[in-house]
Each structure stands twice: as C-alpha cells, then as structure tokens.
UniProtKB/TrEMBL annotation:
Gene Ontology BP, a term: chondroitin sulfate proteoglycan biosynthetic process
Enzyme's top EC category: transferase
Transmembrane segments: 7-32
GO function term, MF aspect, one: glucuronylgalactosylproteoglycan 4-beta-N-acetylgalactosaminyltransferase activity
Protein name as annotated: Hexosyltransferase
Enzyme Commission code(s) on record: 2.4.1.-
C-alpha cells in the first residue's frame, strides 16, 4: 500500500519533468533548423504571431529541400565509386593475367576502352618479359641475342642481310626510318623539362648523339640504349627505350585450292647434254610422278647437241606417258634472259605460274607447292633463296667416298650455303611477267638479266616474297667465266665461282695444307723418338 501511494505522489512530478524536457528539445530543434541569412540568423516566429504556421512550413520545406539535394549528391558519389571500383577490378585482373599466349588476347572492338586497357597491359608485360631491367639464364653461348651498334652515319651489324656488309648506311628504308625515329624520340625526351632544376636546361640535338645499341627479341620487342654528350667532359646522358611488339592478330583465314594450278617450268639451254639428262631424271620423279600438275618448256640455242636433248625429252615422254612439254629452238647466241622471255611469251593457254629454272637446279615436289602458294596474280611474286652445293670433291675428299646425289643434298654449313645473291630462280604468274615488261633483251651471256627483272618487281606494287626454301638446290658444277663477258659480268661470275667451291674453313685447310702436313709429320717423328 505504501509503495502504491508513493508512486501516485511521484507521477505528477514525472509528467512535469517530461513536459519541460519536450519543450526544451523543441526550442533546440527550432534553433538548429532555422535557416541562416547572409550575416545573421533568421528570427524564430513568435508563438502568438499570426504567421507562425507559414514560418514553420517555410522552414520545414527548405530543410526538406536541403536533405533532398544531399541525398542526390550521395547517390552520384556512390555511382562514381562503383564505376571506379569496377574499372580498378578490371585493371587488376589484366595486370594479374600476364598473357602466357598472345593469341589468348581478345581485342573487343565493341568495347574500345576495355580493348585499349587490355592492349596497354599486354605491352607493359612485354617490357617485363624482355631483357630490359635484368638478364636471363641462357643454356649456351649461342642463345644470347646480340646487339647491333649504330651512329648517325653507320650501322654495324652481325646479321648482314642481303647486302652482306658488316657495316653500312642503312639501305632498307624501314631500318633507316626506325633509327631516325628513335633518335628523335630520345632527343625530345631529353629536352622535356623535369620541373625540379631551376638552372637553364641544356638543349639536346641529334648532333649530341654519340652511339647507340639495339637488339630485337622476336616475340617481345626491340630494346634501344642511346648515349648522348653530357653537360661537361666525360659526362654522358643515357636513355633506354623499348618498342614492345603487340599481340598476334588474325588478318586472314582462307581456303586455297591448288588442284588445278599448273606450273610451267622454263629452262633455257645450250649443249650441256649430261646435265640435262640429270635434270630430266629429277623432273620425272618430282614433277611428273609426285606432283603431276606441271609443264616443261625447253628453249634451246643453236643446233649442236640439239638432237640428243630432243631424244631425252621424247624418251621421257614415252616412258612416263608425259605430253606436257614444249621444245623451242633458236638459231642465235645463248642468252638466258632471251630464252626465258621467249618461253614465257610462247604459252597460249590460261594464266599460268612460270618457274624460271636452270639445268643445274634440283627441286622437290614440296617446292612446286611453295611456288604456287607464294604467287598470286596481280599481288605476289616468289623469289626463293636456294641452297647452293659446295664442290663434292673438296667436301668428301676422295672420289670413291662421294655419296649419291640425294644423300649430298643436306642443308648444313659444311655442304653448302644460301645463295642470297642470286635472283635467277623465280616463280610468278605469266600475266605479271608480261605486265612488268619481261626481261631486258639487250643483256647477252651470263648474269645481269635476273637482277634487272627483280628490280622491276621491287619498283612495282607487287609484293616480293624472298625466303630460303628447303626444296631447291643449286648443284655444283665447274664454272667458266668467258673472256667476252663485260667487266661487271666477269666480276660477278668470278665471285660466284669463288663462293661455290667450299666454306671458309674448308678453303683454309686447302691453303694451309702444306703447313698442316709438316706439323703432322713432326708429330709423327716426335712420337717415334719417345
């Protein structure tokens, strides 16, 4: 009973306290929510004022507007954060994926920003893979990728290319443009203000370039290290540039049907019956029996030994049931260019692939397919680099130990060399040969006509395919350079003769043969004494 009476007495006090607290909170709320003017607070409306209702409504409406704007701002920030987070996630995935195979890269052109990010990430990974910041372990001394050095005037190269010069002014336009671009880029980079030094900067030019080295890793890119003169004696500026190679991209995917593509082999000839017999044996095996889509045109100069040559042709025709051959006889002095030109123009059928060939050439059926695949009318001509055989008597020594011809045709540095200075064996469609103007018929005798035709193609819009091939061989034969040749032709002939005999090492053994035999004789005497 006492507890109940105490609670009843305390209840009015509690209600009074709650009313005071509510009033206090209302006053604080109105003070906090009252909008401010430029320099002072707006006065609260008086309780007994006739505008009290309108004042509170205005205050609440303004406060509501402020909250609405704040919510809109938050939503925008959240959207921006989501977009940035998504971009960072994609970038992280790209960086984590080091693209072990460049074919795995998919450049989605419907999303250019993503495609660009993927490509940039790949190019950066190329720098990490290449020997730019540190070396890599190599298995042998031959695995190192050598640098080539260059100045403003010259390039000093290990891979001499078709010019065969260890140093040269860059002949190929792509190499010349590449090095000019790199030097200009380096100069521009050196002249960029660093934003730190307040001293007057040194303005670099190409004249300050001292030397550079560069090397290309075929699947990664090209590294350039360039040295420039510094601000004082014995001081230099060094800049390292890297041109990363992009991912492999599919350009074309097509079916190529060569079932009905005929190759017309044109051979100019004068005498040389034994060589022609050997040639026809190879032609029968590779051309008639294995390939079957082939025609032979022989252009013979003079009448001496002509009947023997025609007899070989007729015997092959009967035994192999082969009718696709043409024999043309010219009563004039031998001219390789004239013979090939006459043979090409004599053809009256549909457009055909012409293979200009010599009687001392050995080819395989695989090469005939390469001939077809690397030619295209109006677009491509084929200039294979054949493998030239050294003198078998020097290579194998004793005559009795010389193996058969097929066993000799092995591509090794001891047995021959790539004949990269020769342009006589070539495949092209007849239409391209006619449109380019054919051979220069003023050139007589040996050499020169092939280079002239090659240059015509280079100066045209046709693509020239120049590559070593494994199925085309030049058989060794003793070469005679005639006195009636022009000085330039005679020089070319003698150079070709020297190249044909043997390798440097083999020729060196012949030069020092006496010295070697003397040494061996002394060794033998010394061993007997002991």
């Amino acid at each position: 009973m006492m507890l109940r009476r105490g609670f009843i007495l305390f209840l009015p006090r509690l209600v009074g306290l709650l009313v005071v607290a509510c009033c206090s909170m209302s006053i604080v709320y109105m003070l906090a929510c009252t909008p401010k003017g430029d320099n002072q607070q707006l006065a609260l409306p008086r309780v007994h004022s006739p505008t009290v209702k309108e004042g509170y409504e205005a205050i609440l409406q303004e406060r509501e507007e402020q909250h609405r704007n704040y919510i809109i701002s938050l939503k925008k920030q959240i959207a921006q954060l989501k977009a940035e987070l998504q971009g960072r996630t994609e970038q992280l995935k790209n960086m984590q994926n080091q693209y072990p195979d460049s074919l795995d890269i998919r450049l989605d052109h419907s999303k250019p920003e993503k495609a660009q990010a993927n490509l940039l990430a790949f190019l950066r990974s190329q720098v990490d893979k290449a020997e730019v910041h540190s070396g890599v372990k190599l298995s042998t001394e031959y695995a190192a990728v050598p640098f080539e050095s260059f100045t403003l005037q010259k390039v000093y190269q290990l891979e001499t290319g078709l010019t065969r010069h260890p140093e040269e002014k860059p002949v190929r336009k792509d190499k010349r443009d590449e090095l000019i671009e790199v030097i200009e880029l380096a100069v521009g980079s050196l002249n960029k203000p660093d934003g730190v030094s307040k001293a007057k900067p040194h303005v670099y030019t190409a004249a300050d370039f001292v030397e550079g080295i560069y090397r290309t890793e075929k699947n990664k890119g090209t590294l350039y290290e360039l040295t420039f003169k510094g601000d004082a004696k014995h001081q230099f500026k060094k800049i390292v540039l890297f041109r990363p190679f992009g991912p492999v991209m599919k350009v074309k995917n097509e079916n190529v049907n060569m079932a009905d593509t005929l190759v017309n082999v044109i051979v100019p000839l004068a005498k040389r019956v034994s060589k022609f017999r050997q040639f026809m044996q190879n032609f029968r095996e590779a051309g008639i029996q294995q390939d079957g889509r082939i025609h032979l045109t022989v252009v013979y100069f003079g009448k001496e030994q002509m009947n023997e040559v025609k007899s070989i042709l007729e015997n092959t025709s009967r035994s192999a049931n082969f009718k696709n051959f043409t024999f043309i006889q010219l009563n004039e002095e031998f001219s390789r260019g004239k013979g090939l030109d006459v043979g090409a123009r004599f053809w009256k059928g549909n457009n055909v692939v012409l293979f200009f060939c010599d009687v001392d050439i050995y080819f395989t059926a695989e090469f005939l397919n390469s001939c077809r695949l690397n030619t295209q009318p109006g677009k491509k001509v084929f200039y294979p680099v054949l493998f030239s055989q050294y003198n078998p008597s020097i290579i194998y020594g004793d005559h009795d130990s010389i193996p058969s011809l097929e066993q000799q045709l092995i591509i090794k540095k001891e047995t021959g060399f790539w004949r990269d200075f020769g342009f006589g064996m070539t495949c092209q469609y007849r239409s391209d040969f006619i449109n380019i103007g054919g051979f220069d018929l003023d050139i007589k005798g040996w050499g020169g006509e092939d280079v002239h035709l090659y240059r015509k193609y280079l100066h045209s819009n046709l693509m020239v395919i120049r590559t070593p091939v494994r199925g085309l061989f030049h058989l060794w034969h003793e070469k005679q350079c005639l006195d009636e040749l022009t000085p330039e032709q005679y020089k070319m002939c003698m150079q070709s003769k020297a190249m044909n005999e043997a390798s440097h090492g083999q020729l060196g053994m012949l030069v020092f043969k006496q010295e070697i035999e003397t040494h061996l004789h002394r060794q033998k005497l010394s061993s007997k004494k002991t």
